[in-house]
């Protein structure tokens, strides 16, 4: 390889396999390769080429000059001399600027036409040095002195003027910023957003709130501040929609209302002035209606209470009776003769006998002042006409021992089978037996205190009716 300096290139040619020897042939008219005259020819070519290698002359002139000098040195009929020189390998004249190209001398011209380091002054005289390969693009797109037209408005600008014009051209089509989907020239966009855009924000003329333009009509249909006429065509004007109900109820002079005693049965209807006269004149009539309504409501309440009581009735045949505050009750019973506690009524089955337990804390009869007495009463029931009489089911009373350990509990149990001849077990009249049947000495007061029958001042007594048993347990 040889350097860009042509003199250095030719001085090293003797080291190459195809080095050029420039000595003359013995014949006076021909030249041949000879090592004797080689240095002289190299020197002449180097002198001719050195100024050009250091200048900024155009590539074509440079290459033409090399070739003409070569022909002057080798002005002979031997074509091999020129061929040998043009086949010499050279670097690009811009290799010191970074170009890596190297090839035969004959190809240098073609390379310089495309070498990106072969800078030329801009032909439009903008002052820029532009590589030859980029000159066309520079003149067309980036040169400040180029003349070009805006693609939207077709006006002609210099390159610098077009850059300033870009982004401000009134003819450039743009989409509406409100995302309504409309595309129009920039000069019309402001007018569109202010007056025509379906997505612009507009205030409601009644409530002042802002809505998108294409939803404003739907808002007007339900806006609470929208003026609406009175449906009764009274003298009131410009009523807000949200105030219409209050107007019709309290202020409209034409609105027809029902009497305030309509639930009691009054059927009068009239405008406000007529209603006021009616209320003043029909006071006695309204009072009678209210009394009838109260009586009817009392019947309904009684019926509902009965239904509720039936739903809450115990129909299992077993009653667990909780006697609270027993200490206070037995103290009261000692000061009050014959004090009796009664349990909630219960049924032996859904359509069975209606029973009730009673308790004498201070005893009754033979157990008075020393024992706890328990009894069972047969009460009049809804289904007595369908039942078998006399009452014949076994009845047991159980006082629970609340010791906390069921295995160690010692409950007290008493039971009996009714005697069919006893009056207590016949079908009851509307007034049930005042005492019933049971055990006057069910458990003594001393026994109550010895074990845990009484805990937290509470007793638990179970009354169980079993129609399957014929022997008392």
Provide a descriptive summary of the structure in words.
The protein is of the alpha+beta class. The chain has helices at 6-11, 38-53, 59-73, 79-86, 108-112, 135-142, 159-165, 186-195, 216-222, 244-251, 272-281, 283-312, 326-335, 445-450, and strands at residues 89-91, 102-104, 119-121, 129-131, 147-149, 156-158, 173-175, 183-185, 201-203, 210-212, 227-228, 239-240, 257-258, 269-270, 318-323, 341-342, 346-347, 354-360, 371-379, 394-399, 412-416, 437-444, 459-466. The strands form nine sheets. Strands 16, 17, 18, 19 and 22 form a five-stranded antiparallel β-sheet that branches. The protein has a four-stranded antiparallel β-sheet with strand order 15-23-20-21, with no helix packed on it. The radius of gyration is 64 Å and the shape is elongated.
Percent of residues in β-strands:
15-25%
Helical segment count: 14
Low-confidence stretches: 1-60
Globally, the shape reads: elongated
Fraction of residues in H or I helices: 25-40%
The computed structural class is: alpha+beta
Instruction: Give the biggest beta sheet.
Output: 5 strands, antiparallel
Overall number of strands: 23
* Alpha-carbon distance between the two ends: 133 Å
Radius of gyration: 64 Å
Mean pLDDT, rounded to whole units? 80
